[in-house]
Amino acid sequence: MAAILAVLQRHRYERARRRERIFRDRSQPLELGDGDIFRKYRFTRDGCMHVINLIRPLLQHDTQRNQALPPELQVFIALNFYATGAVLDSTATIHGITRSTASRVIHRVSVTLGTLKHEIIKFPTTMEEVNRAQVDFFNISGFPQVIGVVDGTHIRLNGAPLGPGEHVYMNRKGYYSINTQIICDTNYKIINILARWPGSTHDSRIFQNSRVGQTFEDLQQHGLLLGDSGYALRPYLMTPVLNPRTPAEQAYNRAHATTRVRIEQVNGQLKHKFRCLLNGMQMAPRRACKIITACAVLHNVAKDLKQPDEVDFGIEQHEHEPDRDDHIVDNGLAIRNTIIANYFH
Questions:
Q1: Main localisation, per the record (predicted)?
Q2: 8, 190, 267, 298: which could join 153 in a potential S-S bond, CB 3.0 to 4.6 Å?
Q3: What is the pLDDT of residues 123-173, one digit of tens each?
C-alpha cells in the first residue's frame, strides 16, 4: 500500500512539474554603462527614459498575467532593432525573449510611436511658423520664401515577403525598397514624412499624390519647397536650372544646392542613427513602413533632446531621379525666373 501511495505521489509531482511554466530572466538594459546604452539604443540613458515615458501609457499591459513584458523592456527591444539593424534573432537573444516575441514587440512599439507622428513631426502652417522658416532658410544662402526641402530616399527590403506585386518594389537601382518622401527644415528636423510607396515609384509622383503636395496645389500652404531636378518645376516647388547659361542662373543653382543639401544630410543622419533603415529590413512592406515612420518620430525626439551623434553622419550618397525639366508648369517657370532676376542677378 505504501508503495502504491509513493507512486501516486510521484506521479502528481511529475504532472505539477510539467504544468509549471518556466520564464527566463530578462536582461536589464539600464544596468549597462552609459556608453553601452548609447551604442545599443542610440539614445543616452536619459533619452531612453524620455522615450519610455512618452509612450509608457500606450504600452502598459492591463495585467501582468504570463509575465507580460513591461513598457521599459518593450521600448529597449525596439530601440535596439532600430539602432543596430540586427536580425530579429540577435535582438531577441540580447533581451532574453523569443524571435516571435521580438517581432510582435517591435511592431507594437512602431505602431505606438506612429500615433505621435502629427504631434512630433509638424509642418509650418501658421504665418508665424512660415515666416520663421523662411528667415531660417534665407540665412543659409539667400534663397527666398523657402519653408522646406524635399527628397525621396529608398529603404531597402531584404528578403521581405512582397507577394504577387513584388515587381513594383524593385527600384531603378536594382533592389527592392520603399521610396520614402521626407521634408526637413534648417534644424535637421523632419517636418513631413510619407512611407508608403514601393521603390519603383518616382519621387515626383509621390509628391503630387501626397497630402502635403495637395495642400500646395490647392493654395492652402504658403511658401516654397526646394527639390532636385527629379521633381517637376511648379509654382511652389523650385528645382535647379538645367544647363544654366547666365551668371544669375549659376548663382541661383549654387544657392539652391547649398540650401537643399539639408535634406541629404537628414537622410544620412536618419539612416546612420537607425541602422535598420540603412541595412534593410526583412519585413513585410506594411510593417517596414511603420518602422520607418517610428524612426522619423525618434529622429525628431533626439533633435529636441539634443541627443549626441555618435559620428558625423554627413550626406547620403545616392543617385538623383532622372532630370524632369520637360515637366515644367509655365507659372512655375515664371516664378523661378522672377526669383533669379530679383535675388541672383
A1: cytoplasm
A2: 267
A3: 999 999 999 999 999 999 999 999 999 999 999 999 878 888 899 999 999
- What are φ and ψ of residue 196, in 5° steps? -155, -30
Distances (CA, A) of 12 to 19, 151, 183, 235, 250: 11, 67, 65, 81, 88
Domain residue ranges of the chain, discontinuous segments joined by + = 23-115, 121-343
Look at the alpha carbons of 93, 97, 101, 104 in this order and tell me if their dihedral is positive or negative. negative
Question: CA distances (Å), 154 to each of 95, 172, 173, 324, in order?
Answer: 30, 10, 10, 19
Alpha helices by DSSP H, the chain: 2-19, 34-41, 45-59, 71-84, 88-94, 99-114, 117-120, 127-141, 203-208, 211-217, 247-273, 275-279, 285-304, 330-343
Task: Report the distance separating Cα 28 and Cα 334, nearest Å.
Answer: 61
Give the residue carrying C-alpha cell 535675388: 343
Q: What is the pLDDT of residues 241-255, one digit of tens each?
A: 999 999 999 999 999
Average of pLDDT values for 324-341?
A: 80
